[in-house]
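Now for a specimen:

…
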Amino acid sequence: MKTDIQNAQTTLDELVPTAKKCDDTKVKKEQNAPLPASEKTVPAKNETTIAEIDKVEMLPIAALEAFKSHPFKITENEDFNKLMNSIKENGIIIPAIARRKGEVYELIAGHRRKAVCEKLGIEKMPVIVRDMTDEQSTIYMVDSNVQRENILPSEKAFAYKMKMNALKRQGQRNDLASSPLATMSKGTRTADIIGGQYGDGKDTVHRYIRLTELNPQLLQMVDDGKIAFRPAAELSYLTKAQQKLLLSAMEAEQSTPSLSQAQKLKLHSLEGLLDETKISSFMREQKPNQCETIKIPCDKVRELLKKDMTIKQIEDFIFNAIADYQRKLQQQRSGTAR
């Protein structure tokens, strides 16, 4: 039972080091809790690791601030409800991770657990406080969340971008205890490192990061599955003004760009040749295997038919009317021939 609860909280929240349940008076050393892959490095001589001994503290929920630009959304869905039921019955088994920030603490891992506590009216939660740099905390925050199930493309996009920037900054500094860029491979590019950790190729990593250049409406359509990943990455090269024009054209044509259309839009945009006319023209192009359709305003059709007819009944009526008209034409031709 305990294993099931721990698995549930780990899967549904963020992957953080394992620690036993604690109270205000008990302080325990964290056992068998390796840091994320990006932090598994040998510290320089005479320097200490991030946390030689992790202490669990019971901190007020009000003193915990969200991580700056935290890209992962907290949605009250089925997974959230499962986590809430687990915390109701057993409390928080896995402590959150935070770092001190003035008079308060910045959460690095544990945002969902904090949200559940707020919803349940719990005033304190177990937290491991660590002394971490901006780069280290960003990398840890991403590593704790990005391999969750059901992660949205937009979440992955901003997470990859944050980690890439953190790795680049960390690789440029010589005052840190560890440098994943230097440790993993001196000749390895940042995108290769990120892709290798999460199972994506470097090109896929770059495409995800390109999604951060989309305007909010287009990015939401990617999250909703209305625009495919590859076309969306191509559309990110359009200027913000061109993306607005594209949205209008998409609404007018009631369609979204295929990969081929998106690539044409990108090429013309980079060449400075993309305008409203070109965008509309590309969006009117017939896609491969796309059936040609005829658009008839539904309200005008309903004026001639019964008000309670369904769309299927209206379609059947139109097809039957066309077939009847064809028969009458045939009969007229036969009569003329005689």
About this structure: Residues 1-8, 10-52, 174-187 have pLDDT under 50 and may be disordered. The CA atoms of residues 8 and 83 lie 7 Å apart. The chain has three domains: 2-154, 214-284, 298-333.
